[in-house]
Amino acid sequence: MRITIVGCGNMGQAYARSFRKYGLVEHEDLLLILRSEGRRGQLEALGRISLSIDMAVGQSDLVILGVKPQDFGGIAAHLSGVLRPEQVVLSIMAGITIPRLQAELGHRTVVRAMPNSPAQIGMGITAYATGAELSMRQTLMVEQLLNSTGRAIHLEHEAHLDPVTALSGSGPAYFFHIVRTMIAAGVELGLPRHVASALVKQTMLGSYHLMEHADRTPEELIKAVMSKGGTTEAAFAEFTASDLDGSLKKGIAAASRRATGLSGS
Ligand SMILES: NC(=O)c1ccc[n+]([C@@H]2O[C@H](COP(=O)([O-])OP(=O)(O)OC[C@H]3O[C@@H](n4cnc5c(N)ncnc54)[C@H](OP(=O)(O)O)[C@@H]3O)[C@@H](O)[C@H]2O)c1
């Protein structure tokens, strides 16, 4: 398989590393297109480096667009001149719809995906939707590649990428915020920061694994920690009084609306 990645920042680089780590592409078959020389030293062990979008891109089975959405306009015209109809274009840019990708690239076989930042350590989750023109073979190729960065989920409806963006795309930031706030609470209650930090991080890790292995719902697991008149119940009374659930849901709904607004759908 031959792959081109246009834009090798956090995500593009994470993809390149995962594909190479799992032997999905050879060094000479991976073309990394950069905007400047700055990252060459860091990336040339992964694949061939180019500073321009030229006919070499037309040799790839898959072209991944890993630039920021605002940089898409600058590369679309160059790409539309070199893409061949049998190639698949996979965009991970937030908010740029399949119809817009198809129109600006003049290309039908397009996939739109929403990864998240744990993809950088092979623990991401990516939801993706395909243009109707993709064959089963092409869809499986994309899914296999995305699975190398964590897990991949196929969406029937492109519109679902907006709530996906709000849940899993932005989700790592919600998690880091909760961790940060819990550590701050521990420090305010008198714990040394390193102790509070170790307690919160290991609690998150252990709780995640308990949820995965215990075969019980989050609700059942909450009840198992909470006893009548106890400490957890006191915390939850405060959470309910300040409508923590409502705030979280409102925040996630706002993120989904923003995703819809960005994509203009
Ligand atoms: N980060 C996340 O958690 C996340 C989650 C979901 C989706 N995404 C999407 O993933 C995409 C990339 O995000 P990121 O966090 O990886 O951003 P990033 O670190 O800023 O990477 C973007 C890269 O694109 C390069 N670039 C810009 N214009 C270019 C051009 N004309 N030719 C070649 N390379 C060019 C930039 O080069 P320079 O280094 O020279 O600026 C930069 O290295 C975005 O569209 C974002 O919406 C990101």
- What is the molecular shape? elongated
Number of H/I helices:
11
State the name of the first-level CATH class of the largest domain.
Alpha Beta
Order of helices and strands: EHEHEEHEHEEHEHHHHHH
Structure summarized in a few sentences:
50% of the residues lie in helices and 14% in strands. With 265 residues, it is an alpha/beta fold. It folds into two domains: 3-159, Rossmann fold (3-Layer(aba) Sandwich); 171-263, Orthogonal Bundle (ProC C-terminal domain-like fold), CATH 1.10.3730.10.
Describe the structure in your own words.
The chain is α/β, with parallel strands linked by helices and about 260 residues long. It folds into two domains: about 5-160, NAD(P)-binding Rossmann-like Domain (Rossmann fold); about 170-265, ProC C-terminal domain-like fold (Orthogonal Bundle). The protein is about 50% helix and about 15% strand. It contains eleven helices and eight strands. An eight-stranded mixed beta sheet has the order 3-2-1-4-5-6-7-8, with helices on both faces. α6 crosses α11 and α7 packs across α8 (about 195-215). The model has no long low-confidence stretch (mean pLDDT about 95). Bound molecules: NADP nicotinamide-adenine-dinucleotide phosphate. NADP nicotinamide-adenine-dinucleotide phosphate binds near residues 9, 10, 68, 69 and 117.
